[in-house]
Amino acid sequence: MCGRFSLIKAQQDLEHYYHHELAGEGYRGPNYNVAPTQYAPVVTSDGLEMMKWGLIPQWAKDEKIAYSMINAVGETVFEKPTYKKPIITQRCLVPATGFYEWLKLGTDKIPQYFTIKDRELFSFAGLFITRKDVEGRELKTFTILTTTPNELVAKVHDRMPVILSHDEEKEWIDPDRIEPERISPLIDPYPANEMNMYAVDRRVGNIKNNSPELILPVQQ
Hints:
The chain is mainly beta and about 220 residues long. It contains five helices and 13 strands. It has one domain: hypothetical protein yedk fold. Strand 3 (about 40-45) and strand 4 form a beta hairpin. The longest helix has 8 residues, at about 10-20.
């Protein structure tokens, strides 16, 4: 799964990379410890805006369901009722600069930080849903797709987020790409030889911690 990630780029960097101005306010980057139910920048075919991490489907009666829907299993999104429509018409990019997973060593868990070589900024494949909150205001939420891990991530976890190449980013949010056979090939593991992994400070486990020290290598 993907339960924490970083986005340490400034707003102007995001706008330059995705060729869109961020709609509205709310981005307080850099964020070294993006956690579920926080708001983060998301890119759709319509532009760049802030959304809440953790999908809240139309049928959900309690918004707390967001905590259990921060990820969607990429292999089954075309089959699950909740994702059948979003995977066709509501795909999005989730900007990131790295993500965290926890390596189990006996009873201990050591956070590992993953980055992409030669890409300071990249995108997870995501889905989003728009609904009304309890006060009748529009609420947009997103989830990050996961897939089977590559050889590097498999050392730590049995799932990994779907990371898109630069060309695939454009394809993922192309509104004309609605055929499952044109979408499915994008849901695959990112090449292991194009990624880095190293141990980081355990303080990343507390969402209250958010500083540059969280992404610095530590002795494992």
